[in-house]
Write a structure and sequence with these properties.
unfolded protein binding, Glyco_transf_24, 12 helices, UDP-g_GGtrans, Nucleotide-diphossugar_trans, 7-stranded mixed sheet, alpha/beta, UDP-glucose:glycoprotein glucosyltransferase activity, Spore Coat Polysaccharide Biosynthesis Protein SpsA, Chain A, Immunoglobulin-like
């Protein structure tokens, strides 16, 4: 979507542009006329202009068209309108090498870039793509070209295509909060699974090209509900399974209607815990290491953190070691995979083996209907608050979030055992033992001192979350609905 520009395609003169037949004269004005007239009105220093320029260049090469561009400039700007360099990866035709083989593929190349500013590389991909960096020796969050000897090279990979959807109750029209959905095949019924959000009944599942079967997950979901109708699937007539064919790179969105079974009308999905069917959540997690006994799992301290860039990944390793040093219980770390560097992902298995901890990488794509942040750091901050209830397996009862740059000085078991009094969150007070940092404690002066009135200052750099209470209250969805543009 190009939000800052307007593209108008006028009525075509002809549906196709082909060479004239011998019966027609090449001088015939009808055959010299363009097949399409394209008029573009754009602010030249807008984000839309960055995107539409390469698109028009390719259209000019592949379509018989007449393009007119009108620059609609803003008279005055209070700030620099553009602070990024943009390359749209698009080729007019399939590329081949000199010996006739298929070329490696299109790429983005940045030349004549300033050397002094600190740059960050980011990808803008279609909403249903999950893309990750797989090769890059450089810190893509902190690029200073004057310090680079040759060139900065990075390679990205399309890891998954998302299957998205919206699910509602057929009778009331409300989203079935907490409904669990699985995606699998004939031979493996459950390959990936997820949960239905309260916001728009939204769900997403990681998939790849192929034929899939969508079902309600065994347990309370399948015991209480039946899928009564569906749109956007490839289900044959009279089939009892909902079949979905992922056959293109375009978005695939399903619309499901579910109905409670006659003898389950009064039951609520979130009314009681379902310990007998722990969630696999392969749709949004990648598990490393062998499984543990149930007792060990119950004692395991789950730590969640987010980081991006080599600097904060170094901080993250220090934080992990401080947790392991002070916590006597088994520890399992959870990391947001979306923004981890290839270097950290390669190093993590060796570190886990050396220090004896478990870890999992979790993924979730920022929903298209939620206000999109433009700064990578704001997106990362959003993940640590808005999507906690859909990031982790159902058998994880509590999770402790720790900022990557924190140093833990106590046993995390104390925070796990803390009585939250029915609340979903428990925030820790800021430490005040180091007097040398008094000058940086802003809550000791001015507005914050008057506002707190002697109470301790609590921060979001370290807090515990009761995931079951959070799911029941659906606070994550409420927070998501209240997310406004910055």
């Amino acid at each position: 979507m190009i939000s800052d520009s307007s593209l108008f395609v006028l009525l075509p003169v002809s549906s196709t542009s082909q060479p004239p037949s011998p019966a027609h004269s090449s001088a015939d004005p009808k055959w010299q006329a363009p097949a399409f007239d394209i008029t573009v009105i754009v602010d030249p220093v807008s984000r839309g202009a960055q995107k539409i320029g390469p698109i028009l260049s390719v259209l000019r090469q592949v379509v018989n068209c007449d393009i007119r561009i009108f620059l609609n400039c803003v008279e005055k700007n209070s700030d620099m309108p553009l602070k990024s360099f943009y390359r749209y990866v698009l080729e007019p035709e399939v590329q081949f090498t000199a010996d006739g083989h298929l070329a490696a593929g299109p790429y983005a190349k940045f030349t004549n870039m300033p050397g002094a500013p600190l740059l960050t590389q980011n990808m803008h991909v279609p909403e249903n793509w999950l893309v990750e960096s797989i090769v890059s020796p450089y810190d893509l969050d902190n690029i200073r070209l004057e310090e680079v000897q040759s060139v900065v090279h990075s390679q990205f990979e399309l890891e998954h295509l998302l299957l998205e959807g919206h699910c509602f109750e057929a009778t009331m029209g409300n989203p079935p909060r907490g409904l669990q959905i699985t995606l699998g095949t004939e031979s493996e019924p459950v390959v990936v699974d997820t949960i239905v959000m309260a916001n728009l009944g939204y769900f997403q599942l990681k998939a790849n090209p192929g034929a899939w079967i969508l079902r309600l997950r065994q347990g309370r979901s399948s015991e209480i509900f039946d899928i009564t109708s569906h749109e956007g699937s490839d289900t044959p007539v009279n089939s009892t399974d909902i079949k979905v064919l992922i056959s293109s790179f375009r978005s695939h969105v399903l619309k499901l209607r579910v109905t409670k079974k006659p003898d389950k009308i009064g039951m609520d999905l979130l009314g009681e815990d379902d310990d007998s069917q722990p969630g696999l959540w392969n749709s949004i997690t990648s598990t490393f290491g062998s499984s543990k006994e149930e007792q060990v799992e119950a004692e395991t301290i789950n730590i969640f953190s987010v980081a991006s860039g080599h600097l904060y990944e170094r901080f993250l390793r220090i934080m992990m070691l401080s947790v392991l040093k002070n916590t006597k219980s088994p520890v399992k770390f959870w990391f947001l995979k979306n923004y981890l560097s290839p270097t950290f992902k390669d190093f993590l298995p060796r570190m886990a083996k050396e220090y004896g901890f478990q870890y999992e990488l979790v993924q979730y794509k920022w929903p298209r209907w939620l206000h999109q942040q433009t700064e990578k750091q704001r997106i990362i901050w959003g993940y640590k608050i808005l999507f906690l209830d859909v990031l982790f397996p159902l058998d994880v009862k509590k999770i402790i979030f720790v900022d990557a740059d924190q140093v833990v000085r106590a046993d995390m078991k104390e925070l796990v055992d803390l009585d939250l009094g029915g609340a979903p969150y428990g925030y820790t007070p800021f430490c005040e033992s180091r007097t040398t940092m008094d000058g940086f404690r802003f809550w000791k002066h001015g507005y914050w001192r008057n506002h707190l009135q002697g109470r301790r200052y609590h921060i979001s750099a370290l807090y515990v979350v009761d995931l079951r209470r959070l799911e029941a209250w659906l606070l994550a969805k409420s927070l998501a609905r209240q997310t406004l543009p910055y």
